Amino acid sequence: MDNHSLINASGHTHAKIALLAFAVSMIFVAAVSGVGSGKSDITGARVYGPIVKASPAISVAGSNTSFIR
């Protein structure tokens, strides 16, 4: 068995590599999900900064266009 190259490796070696990659990716997904779940509030929305109230559009004197502050 010549398993020194991925191209010439046996099917068993390819299966082991694929299984290892899948297991590591599932561990990564579980770790990221566990860390991210503690940062959300009760409704599930994530808060990243201060809440800013949006103001209505204003008109500038002498102009027909509206600008947003």
Structural commentary:
The protein is mostly helical and 69 residues long. The chain has one domain. The chain has one helix and two strands; from the N terminus they run H-E-E. The longest helix is centred in the middle third of the chain and has 26 residues, at 11-36. The protein is elongated, with a radius of gyration of 27 Å. The N and C termini lie far apart (71 Å). The mean pLDDT is 74.
Strand order of the largest sheet: 1-2
CA(first)-CA(last) distance: 71 Å
Q: Mind describing the biggest β-sheet? A: 2 strands, antiparallel
Query: Which blocks of ≥5 consecutive residues have pLDDT under 50?
Result: none
Q: What is the molecular shape?
A: elongated
User: What is the arithmetic mean of pLDDT?
Assistant: 74
SS summary, helix count: 1
Number of domains: 1
Helix and strand composition category: mainly alpha
Key structural traits:
1 helix, 2 strands, two-stranded antiparallel sheet, elongated, 69 residues, mainly alpha
Q: Topology of this protein?
A:
Elements: H1 11-36, E1 58-59, E2 66-67
What would you say about this model in short?
By secondary structure, the protein is mainly α. It has one helix at residues 11-36, and strands at 58-59, 66-67. The longest helix is centred in the middle third of the chain and has 26 residues, at 11-36.
